[in-house]
């Protein structure tokens, strides 16, 4: 008997060309971490806000994505964080819109993941604004005269109820007539 384990189910039908989504590789000398002289970090951040990926920006400047990210984090850390927050907000808003206008289950699932990704990034990048609140503030104030009188009356009423319950006789248990059902 012939082993059909590795036989294609569509044998005889030629495969078409494979389309891989690839980003342009930067022209770098063996993965160099060197940043071009005179590169303005503010200009790079502006490009980062308009381009879809860091890889595209890095390829334009001829550096690796890792090198560009490290350089931005070391050179302008506060601005880098602000740009990351803006991109996360945009991703969250894109997810919101995607959920609202989803035409099928796949686009709905994609939009939900995009929304979750934006929310997750926002919670970590700007937890003061977008993080979960776990702190509870409680203010205590001394009782005013009216509240103190009400509290005394309530305590007196509770003592009265407890005394009446202790004095109350146990009610007799009546037999249940099963024929009335």
Describe the model.
The protein has 181 residues and is mainly α. The longest helix is centred in the middle third of the chain and has 24 residues, at 77-100. The radius of gyration is 35 Å and the shape is flat. The chain has seven helices and no strands. It has helices spanning 41-50, 54-61, 65-75, 77-100, 105-125, 127-130, 145-167. Among the domains are: 22-75, Arc Repressor Mutant, subunit A (Orthogonal Bundle), CATH 1.10.10; 90-133. Helix content is 56%, strand content 0%.
Features:
single chain; 181 residues; mainly alpha; Arc Repressor Mutant, subunit A; 56% helix
Largest sheet: none
CATH class of the domain at 22-75: Mainly Alpha
Please work out how many helical segments DSSP would assign: 7
Strand content: under 5%
**CATH fold annotation of the domain at 22-75:** Arc Repressor Mutant, subunit A
Q: Rg, please?
A: 35 Å
Could you list the spans in which at least 5 consecutive residues all have pLDDT below 50?
Answer: none
CATH-defined architecture of the domain at 22-75:
Orthogonal Bundle
The general outline is: flat
Set down the secondary structure blueprint.
Elements: H1 41-50, H2 54-61, H3 65-75, H4 77-100, H5 105-125, H6 127-130, H7 145-167
Helix pairs in contact: 1-4, 2-3, 3-4, 4-5
């Amino acid at each position: 008997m012939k082993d059909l384990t590795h036989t294609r189910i569509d044998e005889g039908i030629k495969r078409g060309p494979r389309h891989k989504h690839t980003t342009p590789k930067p022209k770098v000398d063996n993965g160099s971490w060197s940043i071009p002289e005179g590169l303005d970090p503010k200009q790079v951040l502006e490009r980062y806000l308009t381009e879809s990926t860091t890889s595209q920006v890095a390829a334009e400047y001829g550096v690796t994505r890792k090198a560009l990210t490290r350089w931005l984090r070391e050179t302008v850390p506060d601005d880098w964080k602000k740009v990351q927050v803006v991109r996360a907000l945009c991703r969250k808003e894109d997810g919101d819109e995607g959920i609202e206008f989803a035409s099928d289950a796949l686009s709905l699932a994609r939009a939900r993941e995009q929304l979750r990704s934006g929310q997750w990034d926002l919670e970590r990048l700007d937890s003061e604004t977008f993080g979960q609140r776990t702190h509870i503030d409680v203010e205590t104030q001394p009782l005013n005269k009216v509240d103190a009188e009400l509290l005394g009356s309530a305590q007196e009423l509770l003592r009265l109820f407890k005394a009446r319950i202790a004095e109350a006789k146990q009610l007799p248990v009546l037999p249940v007539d099963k024929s009335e059902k």
